Amino acid sequence: MLTKPEANLAYPKYPLTLEEGEQLLTDAIHQFHGSIVQARKGVKGLPENIAIKAAAGLGKTSQVISELCVGQVKYQQEVHIEYYVPTHNLSSQLIADIGNEYQIHAERISADEQPSINVSALKGRLQKDTSGNPLCKKPEQVTELVTLGYPVSSRLCKSKTDKCEYYASCAYQKQFHTQEVDTKGITLPAVTVMTHQQLFLERHSFLPKPDFVVVDESFYQAGIEKIQIQNEVLQLVTSSDGNPSPVLKALRQFILDRKPLLKSLRELDVTKKDLLDEAEKYSFKELASIKPNQTAVEQAKHLKAAPKHLKFDYILTALAEELETQSRDESYLLHMDDTDNKTKLIFMQRKEINLPDGVPVLFIDADLNEDVIKLFKPATKIINIPVERKATIHQFNKTLSAYSRRDPKITEQIHTFLNLFKSDNKTLIVTTKKLRQKLTNESDEQVKQTGLFGKSSINHYGNLRGLNEFKDYKTVVVLDRNQPNNVQLEQTAMSLWFDKGVDINSYKDTETYQRSNSGLRMKDRSEQNAQASYHPDKHVQLLLEINREAEITQAIDRLRLLRSSDNDRQVFIATSIPVDVTLDYYWDWKLLQRLIKLLDSSDVLPLHPEHFLKVFTDDTVKTKSGAKDLIKNLNRMLPLIDTLIKDSILFKYQHADSRKAAQALILKSVKEPKQALELSIGVEIITCHEAN
User: Fold this and answer.
1) What is the CATH number of domain 392-588?
2) Given pLDDT bands bounded at 50, 70 and 90, which one contains residue 420?
3) DSSP assignment of 364-401, as one string?
4) Which of the following CATH numbers is that of domain 17-122+175-224+352-385: 3.20.20.120, 3.40.50.300, 3.10.490.10, 2.60.40.10?
């Protein structure tokens, strides 16, 4: 056996045991809570921000709920906690989980001896109530103001002098006035659950300063502002006649000639002040005419009359800051997008987390990246807890590529492979959204939920985070990988690091990655290599891994494999991308396809060179030497055959011309295996019995 140095592996660190991981998790949460307690006592320099990276199933969320949310009831602490999750659906699940944990706690202690806990979800104005209506009575006006990028509260809800006619009965506003005192007059611990998007919005004046904040799952995408510039602005810039301002002239050079924007601005002697003056021309002064006490009709009239220079003043203001603080030629905030043969102007910028000063934050995420976290919260301690998964993990080489996806033969192979799982209602299949729809013919609306492929469940990358419905499944099949366009990732990287003085290495207009070999982490420490695409810029590469590698492990971890008590959990990774798991087997995809075809063409597959040539007479194997090599490889695949191809049985047999036993795979549907084998190879069989 060849032993590969860990340094050459894509993920060299062999994970911890469950017990070791649990202890580290407990220590980390106690450390965070302890710093908060110390801060309450007036200790300076505390508390601290902590980010915990650990696979799904270790108990991150449940322990946070138990220790930091319901635990405040136990200590009778009058605290306000803000808890951020990716979606409103997950906020409902979290509220239910907190309620269940509180009930467990309440059963241990008399209700008379403790307060309860106040848990609520804070929804946006456009979210629906129980009747399916938006919380705000003026949803059209809200949508228009948000699109234009202006604050809603002071224009539609309440100003110093005016108030909306629906303000007193508004379902949105009522969320900020929930009861927080019990029958004894004790202020209750409060948990307000919100989505990641709300981390970056202007805080409502009625929202109290939290004692601490929990951010669950990856949140960075919610922290990127993306604006597609409307045609009105493009026309303004590109059709400017006469004597356009130097600002508009530089923008025209950027759009029409693709000249680096910051370089053009400097060559035209444009200053920060020039950009700010230009921005002032397009500020939405007409907004002053919109007041909260106006009717919806009046407000709609003012909005309709307003110029549609979508955030153009805001964009020019951001460019002014970039021009003054960054020495590069290219803008990292403004990008050209020529996809679909349509020229679009895209503005992208990292937003800041909008929390009161001094509030400690606990980040918990299986895919947490230190570099990304510290963009939003620089002073954050990172704690990584890698724990070994309890499953047999198979991976295949050379499954799909950008070219093979268009090959009808590959499409057939995919169907053949997935059909092996089609009858199992405890199997989860995960692939790309595009391939999922190709396999199932589901509509865009249907794929928002888990679908079916035969009896198996099917879902896609980007649609799995936080889902617990597959925790008792026996098998997960991961097919293909989620690899975004490199240009899109480059633009995202630029928007995230735009103010950090770093150079993002981009391919410009190409849509290709480079290729490299990486070692796989094998349980037996044997040497196995896989080829994968990578980006030469480290910032773009880490975003690629968050979108590609991390989505594969997210799919795997839907089965909650860290705590599995079963010995028969199976993971099949049908992509050659190296991921942070320890593999039991690394299989040849083409050999598997060949095996499936052989069993499809004959009820009997002898694993004996001479007998093999008697059964299979195609052009693939013509010589005894070729048959011997193929059988040698097939024998290596017997553990996979036993697991995956369940309609075949391995038999041992001895024929009259040899004292040495041979083996054959025979389909379960064959009623007389010995007879079928004799008929296939034309030799008398002395003994024939199942190998196991």
Assistant:
1) 3.40.50
2) very high
3) E-TT--HHHHHHH-SSEEEEEE-B---SEEEEEES---
4) 3.40.50.300
